[in-house]
Amino acid sequence: MNYESGFEAERVEPMTGSASLESDEAAEATRRRRWYIGAAVLALLLAIGAYFVVSGAGAEENTGGKAQLPSVTVIAPGQSTVDGEISATGTLAARRDLPVGVVGEGGRVTAISVDAGDWVRQGQVLVSIDRSVQSQQVQSAAAQVQVAQSDANIAQANLDRSLQLVERGFVSEADVDRLTATRDAAVARVRVAQAQVRELQARNARLNVVAPASGLVLERNVEIGQTVSAGSPPLFRIARGGEMEVLARLSETDLAQINVGTTATVTPVGSDNSYTGSVWQVAPLISSQDRQGTARIALPYAEGLRPGGFATVVIKSGTVSAPILPESAIQSDDEGSYVFIVDAENTVQRRDIELGQVTSEGIVIAGGLAGNERVVLRAAGFLNPGETVRPIADGA
């Protein structure tokens, strides 16, 4: 049994060594096969790369190197006629703001007939002031008129009797002159008393605060029971006729482009409604601080116009001829707005511009372009001044 076991072991060992040898040969063949495949792929890639290099060099020789230049779309905007507009901001105010205060001696307020936002007519009583003392003074003065009138009547009667007796010689001419003077003095005292009554009545009438003109009450600064006098602040502010205006601040250049009667559109801040007005006054002076002046734009009354608020203003300034560019062609930096133009040598150049109004067709170029330049339409942000490009006309 031991011999059999040994015999079997001897037979197994040579079989195991043969299998291992075959496995090594297979692995070696696999490695060689992979190496051949890798070398073939590398050779193929080198051949493809060499082909493109040779083809590119040949194309560059045929085209003079232009195929490598970046292509940009350019546009020659020309000149377009647009309606000139000047945009500004301003403050809403009453065109004629009337402060209403006490014109008499004043006193305690007993009644107020209007409030802010009410419409009033000229001469309407706004505030009544206590006049109990003044009424008694008028009555006293009226009684003095009656007393003076009685004295004048007696003096006239005495004079009449003396004139009848002077012809008989019972009364001298001197007595007649004296009685005439007495009569005249009595009549004068009547007139004085009557004038005093009228004066007191006029003073009492001035105790009523009345509207100096028809319009809209903007402010009320008085309450019942308050004591007011001629030195008190205005009790009311009235917009005469309800007319409003916008005080638009404009530069010297913009002021020179508008005239009285120029149409303007006003849009209050926070409102979607716009109102049409016209310039009724152009400031004769320019502020030395900000080099601006004021254009006053008259507006009819509208509920949405509230004095003291801000508004944007667009003023028509006639027609102008200027280039118009889309927003994609315009760049900006710390130095301002600019565009890139392509010169005769196809070189990119920077051109500073001045922007005008925004229209449905684009942005008006107020300065810096004549309109016949080739302006880079898109992708100008990827270009640099002095760079050579291949321009392509828009739409080509």
TrEMBL record:
- All residue ranges annotated as the CusB-like beta-barrel domain in the record: 248-317
Primary location class: other
Record's keyword terms, sorted: Coiled coil, Membrane, Transmembrane, Transmembrane helix, Transport
State the Gene3D superfamilies in the record.
2.40.30.170, 2.40.420.20, 2.40.50.100, Helix hairpin bin
Q: Please list where the region (Disordered) is annotated.
A: 1-24
Q: Where is the Multidrug resistance protein MdtA-like barrel-sandwich hybrid domain?
A: 107-232
- Superkingdom, taxonomy of origin: Bacteria
Please list the residue ranges annotated as the Multidrug resistance protein MdtA-like C-terminal permuted SH3 domain: 325-377
Task: Using the record for this protein, list the coiled-coil segments as residue ranges, or answer none.
Answer: 183-210
Which parts pass through the membrane? 35-54
Instruction: Kindly give the SUPFAM superfamilies that the UniProt entry links to this protein.
Output: HlyD-like secretion proteins
**Known Pfam families for this protein?**
Beta-barrel_RND_2 (PF25954), BSH_RND (PF25917), RND-MFP_C (PF25967)
Where does the record place it?
Answer: Cell envelope
Family, per the entry? Answer: Belongs to the membrane fusion protein (MFP) (TC 8.A.1) family.
The name this protein carries in UniProt is Efflux RND transporter periplasmic adaptor subunit
